[in-house]
Amino acid sequence: IRLANNTEYGLVAYVFTRDLNRGIRMGERLETGMLGLNAGVISNAAAPFGGVKQSGLGREGGLEGIEEYLY
Question: pTM of the full predicted structure?
Answer without folding.
Answer: 0.65
